[in-house]
Amino acid sequence: MTVVEQYLSRQIVAARVGVCVRTLERWEKRGIGPAPIRVGPRLVRYRAAEVDAWMAAPEAEDR
């Protein structure tokens, strides 16, 4: 059986985390949060599993 990874847009990740998209973009530049995946020159996606793991980490309560 093949496992299909789910990818999320910036808008969806921002909504899940509870921040605006601009904050998420600033975090990307600072290396904060789940690692973004560049799909194109202006298209970024995140692995859903990485976002969930990052949010479940103990440090997530400090955000």
Task: Describe the overall structure.
This protein is α+β, with helices and mostly antiparallel strands and 63 residues long. It has a single domain (7-62), classed as Arc Repressor Mutant, subunit A. Helices cover 43% and strands 14% of the residues. It contains three helices and three strands, in the order βααββα. It has helices at residues 10-17, 21-30, 48-56; strands at residues 7-9, 37-38, 44-47. Strands 1-3-2 form a three-stranded antiparallel β-sheet. A hairpin with a 5-residue loop joins strand 2 and strand 3. Helix 1 (10-17) crosses helix 2 (21-30). The chain is globular and about 35 Å long. The chain starts with 6 loop residues before the first strand and ends in a 7-residue tail after the last helix.
Present the secondary structure layout.
Layout: E1 7-9, H1 10-17, H2 21-30, E2 37-38, E3 44-47, H3 48-56
Antiparallel strand pairs: 1-3, 2-3
Helix pairs in contact: 1-2
